[in-house]
């Protein structure tokens, strides 16, 4: 019995060590870049978005709004007060929707993490998040902004407190980096362990049968559904996605998971419901599901079979 347990531990440690060798550097670089953007680039990013208000870009403004949302390092609880302050100054709600939607889905740190999944999946994640933000913004324009109706409810939201206030730039960066490590480190290690368990105990053939191209329609729907309860932290799901892709998950199923996961993360949902109201909140969930399925289908159509 002890020999069998020891053997299983050795196998699991092997998978854990392989995952760490492949991902740890990307995690560290993501932490460093994410903290650098948060400390030194956040105000500039939000300033660029604020300066869009005086431009007559119309629907063309959805593209830079979505891009700036991806570049913003804030979580949804930090993004909503920023969006509320922009709304109070008269910012178009369709631009706000694009900025907030893309900010929910991606940030510079998670984008760098995702490089370990390979260039095609990295591009899929970037493009799908960019287009999701623009699509959300267009729908708000089509059914609300154009008709002079309000979509968001920002009552009671004020400017978020800035925690990066140390006058020394290096200490300010190191403090932010420490908070980043504490916030993501546990989830990162949990993701490594779960990925090792999947690789050791879930047969690749069974996984491919559920999430592979041969089971395309159901696989996309299942991947989108799995993203709802399973997604807790982006850093923790990247190791899982890497293991799943190796086990036969189609790129489209991965794309669907990468949309529904962060978009329905429980902390994001509770923050969004506070500024959307019940009716708009359920429309948001329906939009996320439909967009994730469309993104998954297009990804499997675009990327060649491996």
Characterize the structure shown.
The chain is an all-alpha fold. The chain has one domain. The chain is globular, with a radius of gyration of 20 Å. The mean pLDDT is 81.
Keywords:
single chain; 306 residues; mainly alpha
Q: What are the low-pLDDT stretches, counting only 5+ consecutive residues below 50? A: none
The level of helicity is over 70%
Please give the alpha-carbon distance between the first and last residues.
Answer: 40 Å
Mean pLDDT: 81
Rg, please?
Answer: 20 Å
Number of domains: 1
- The tally of strands reads 0
What is shown here, in short?
The chain has 306 residues and is mainly α. Helix content is 77%, strand content 0%.
Task: Please write out the topology.
Elements: H1 2-51, H2 62-71, H3 76-88, H4 93-105, H5 108-113, H6 119-143, H7 169-201, H8 204-211, H9 216-230, H10 234-246, H11 251-263, H12 266-302
């Amino acid at each position: 019995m002890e020999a069998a347990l020891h053997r299983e531990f050795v196998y699991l440690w092997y998978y854990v060590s392989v995952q760490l060798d492949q991902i740890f550097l990307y995690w560290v670089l993501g932490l460093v870049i994410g903290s650098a953007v948060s400390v030194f680039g956040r105000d500039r990013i939000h300033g660029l978005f604020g300066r869009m208000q005086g431009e007559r870009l119309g629907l063309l403004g959805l593209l830079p709004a979505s891009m700036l949302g991806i570049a913003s390092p804030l979580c949804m609880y930090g993004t909503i007060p920023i969006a509320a302050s922009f709304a109070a100054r008269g910012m178009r709600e369709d631009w706000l929707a694009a900025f907030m939607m893309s900010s929910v889905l991606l940030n510079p740190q998670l984008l760098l993490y995702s490089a370990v999944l390979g260039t095609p999946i990295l591009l899929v994640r970037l493009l799908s998040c960019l287009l999701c933000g623009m699509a959300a913004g267009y729908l708000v324009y089509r059914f609300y902004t154009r008709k002079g109706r309000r979509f968001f409810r920002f009552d009671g939201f004020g400017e978020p407190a800035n925690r990066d206030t140390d006058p020394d730039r290096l200490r300010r960066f190191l403090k932010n980096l420490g908070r980043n490590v504490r916030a993501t480190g546990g989830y990162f290690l949990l993701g490594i362990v779960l990925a090792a368990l999947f690789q050791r105990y879930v047969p690749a053939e069974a996984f491919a049968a559920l999430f592979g191209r041969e089971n395309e329609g159901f696989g996309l729907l299942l991947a989108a559904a799995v993203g709802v309860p399973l997604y807790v932290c982006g850093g923790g799901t990247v190791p899982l996605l890497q293991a799943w892709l190796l086990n036969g998950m189609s790129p489209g199923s991965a794309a669907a998971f990468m949309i529904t996961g962060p978009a329905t993360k429980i902390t994001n949902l509770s923050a969004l419901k506070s500024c959307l109201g019940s009716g708009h909140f359920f429309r948001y969930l329906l939009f996320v599901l439909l967009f994730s399925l469309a993104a998954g289908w297009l990804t499997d159509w675009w990327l060649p079979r491996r």
